[in-house]
Design goal:
This protein is α/β, with parallel strands linked by helices. It folds into two domains: about 5-85, Winged helix-like DNA-binding domain superfamily/Winged helix DNA-binding domain (Arc Repressor Mutant, subunit A); about 105-210, Rhodanese-like domain (Oxidized Rhodanese, domain 1). Helices cover about 50% and strands about 15% of the residues. The strands form two sheets. The protein has a four-stranded parallel β-sheet, with helices on both faces. The protein is globular.
């Protein structure tokens, strides 16, 4: 093998990964799969894509070995192939924020005008949870909560929040979180809670970020009930 052939071959393999991540839709699908494994149908619904388009995007990500797939009956479930994929995605996000001023401007345009959406200190949050001073709401779908959640967090998916808001203790402040810095589920939850008189703020971190910072993550089969 000549040196030119070697370089063409090795950089061609690197290009497989960069090609797989060159689509905004594929990045969104990958971000969703960082939360928990999902079927094609569930991903299509979350990303507002057709089943055909979702399948094609997933095939590209799988071809780059970023995803694994398992077929059970009629359904195919996708998951990230390795924890390194999670770290790669987080590094890509951090690099983009560090190099592209447009990233911060887009985030500021969306979140900046919404009162009460400032970052919450993580260590302080855990202490307040242990002391019973704050209610932490995980407003993601139930399967994501089961795959991993912040210790002490209560599972109330956003679509159930208004119906169940009377179950929350109104005297406690509420911290809502979802999938990470670009997730809008917690934004909507905070707006709904504040409209009902709660003191509510948003935690920017998602579970992948929480894990990466070395904080405990609880996994288990718990159902989405408020408990005691």
């Amino acid at each position: 093998m000549s040196s030119r052939t070697f370089k063409d071959a090795i950089y061609g393999q690197l290009a497989r990964v960069s090609h797989a991540l060159s689509s905004p839709r594929r990045l969104e699908l990958l971000d969703l799969l960082l939360q928990s494994p999902r079927t094609v149908e569930a991903l299509a619904k979350e990303a507002s894509l057709s089943l055909a388009n979702t399948s094609q995007h997933l095939k590209v990500l799988r071809a780059a070995r970023l995803l694994e797939a398992e077929k059970r009956g009629l359904y195919v479930t996708y998951r990230v192939a390795d924890p390194a994929v999670v770290e790669f995605f987080r590094s890509l996000r951090q690099l983009a924020h560090g190099r592209l001023a447009e990233m911060d401007r887009i985030v500021q345009d969306f979140f900046g005008a919404r009162e009460g959406l400032e970052a919450v200190d993580r260590e302080e949050l855990l202490g307040r949870v242990r002391r019973g001073e704050v209610t932490v709401l995980d407003v993601r779908p139930e399967e994501e909560y089961r795959a991993g959640h912040i210790p002490g967090a209560i599972c109330v998916p956003l679509h159930d929040l208004e119906r169940r808001i009377g179950e929350l203790q109104s005297e406690r402040a509420v911290v809502a979180y979802c999938r990470g810095p670009y997730c809008v589920l917690a934004v909507r939850a905070v707006e709904l809670l504040r409209a009902h008189g709660f003191k509510a703020v948003r935690l920017e971190d998602g579970i992948p970020d929480w894990r990466a910072r070395g904080f405990e993550v609880v996994e288990g089969p718990e159902a989405c009930t408020l408990g005691s």
